[in-house]
TrEMBL record:
Entry similarity comment: Belongs to the MurB family.
GO cellular component, one term: cytosol
Pathway this chain belongs to: Cell wall biogenesis; peptidoglycan biosynthesis
Source superkingdom: Bacteria
GO molecular function: flavin adenine dinucleotide binding; UDP-N-acetylmuramate dehydrogenase activity
Subcellular location: Cytoplasm
Cofactor(s) needed by this chain: FAD
Catalytic activity entry: UDP-N-acetyl-alpha-D-muramate + NADP(+) = UDP-N-acetyl-3-O-(1-carboxyvinyl)-alpha-D-glucosamine + NADPH + H(+)
GO biological process: cell division; cell wall organization; peptidoglycan biosynthetic process; regulation of cell shape
UniProt cross-references to InterPro entries, sorted A to Z: FAD-bd_PCMH-like_sf (IPR036318), FAD-bd_PCMH_sub2 (IPR016169), MurB (IPR003170), MurB_C (IPR011601), MurB_C_sf (IPR036635), Oxid_FAD_bind_N (IPR006094)
Residue ranges constituting the FAD linked oxidase N-terminal domain according to the UniProt record: 68-138
Protein name: UDP-N-acetylenolpyruvoylglucosamine reductase
Length: 273
């Protein structure tokens, strides 16, 4: 296990906001069991849905590395994936092995563990669709034992591995689908920006959060370097020197204006720490 006492969390935060503190990098199950005994521990994936809003934490943050970065093809339709694996790495593996099933999710910058915990999805597809079983620190779980809801699950333990089932296709068909979904993402989202993706959950399919934020005139609105994206009003971006305080201020302004004008309470999708 590696322990960094003065780790700069802004380096791993997708929106590039973070404190300096202690980070444990977990290499194997023994490390994980040791960290699990600590008080106030919190597992991090790729930090693409988490905002480090404070300057100091008592929490013991840790990341999965080492054996949790493994991808193993079990047979022609089943793959075992470590929870620390970045989704882009899994996609590259799938392309190499001609596995189809996750093309819609391409471009989501999470780890497999973080994406399962958040039940990440896009274009009508959720990561849970292809899941068979999960391994967690509390033991093995069948998919049917987990409650998956809109960008949420009832998983309380650390996910260590996931088993997925896929179908076989051809490289050219897979690449064609990937290109289609990347094109859609680039058209609708601030691709590669410093952001945490959708800030709020959509209150309903006909009242998406971006539309409500747009309708109250906040597209492009900024609190210092933290701005509502001009490309997608539910994305908040860091123009450079943004911090947690400005992010929270912008979030409460959006919530207040949407409530005052539309009588709708927006719920955060981003996790504030
Ligand atoms: C540009 C951009 C585009 C995005 N597009 C989408 C999209 O289309 N669809 C979508 O659903 N999301 C999207 N997101 C949001 C984000 O990528 C997802 O929510 C993703 O699931 C977060 O994964 P992560 O590894 O970064 O998790 P983190 O942000 O690190 O953590 C999120 C939560 O998961 C928990 N967690 C992490 N790893 C584990 C583990 N091993 N076991 C248990 N819990 C764990 C953390 O403790 C935390 O509570 C986007 C984000 C960005 C920045």
């Amino acid at each position: 296990m590696k322990i960094y006492n003065d780790f700069d969390f802004s380096k791993i935060s997708y929106i590039r906001i973070g404190h300096v503190g202690k980070l444990f990098v977990i290499e194997n199950i023994d490390d994980l069991l040791q960290v699990n005994d600590l008080k106030g521990k919190k597992v991090l994936g790729n930090c693409s849905k988490i905002l480090f809003s404070k300057k100091n934490y008592r929490k013991n943050f840790y990341k999965l590395s080492g054996e949790f970065l493994k991808i193993e093809k079990l047979n022609n339709e089943t793959v075992l994936v470590g929870a620390g694996v970045k989704f882009s790495t899994l996609m590259n593996f799938m392309i190499k092995e001609n596995f189809t099933g996750f093309e819609e999710l391409v471009g989501i910058p999470g780890t497999v563990g973080g994406m399962i915990k958040m039940n990440a999805g896009a274009f009508g597809k959720n990561i849970s669709n292809n899941l068979i079983t999960l391994e967690t620190l509390d033991g093995k779980k069948d998919k049917s034992e987990i409650c998956f809801s809109y960008r949420n699950t009832d998983i309380e333990s650390v996910i260590t591995f996931a088993k997925f089932s896929f179908e076989k296709s051809t490289k050219s068909k897979i690449m064609k689908k990937i290109e289609k979904f990347i094109k859609l993402r680039k058209r609708n989202q601030p691709y590669k920006a410093k952001t945490l993706g959708s800030t709020f959950k959509n209150p309903s399919p006909d009242q998406p959060a971006w539309k409500l934020i747009d309708n109250v005139g906040l597209r492009g609105f900024c609190v210092n370097d933290i701005c509502v994206s001009t490309k997608h009003s539910n994305f908040i971006i860091n123009r450079g020197k943004g911090n947690g305080k400005d992010f929270l201020e912008l979030v409460s302004m959006i919530k207040k204006k949407v409530y005052d004008e539309k009588k709708i309470k927006l719920e955060l999708e981003v996790e504030i720490l």
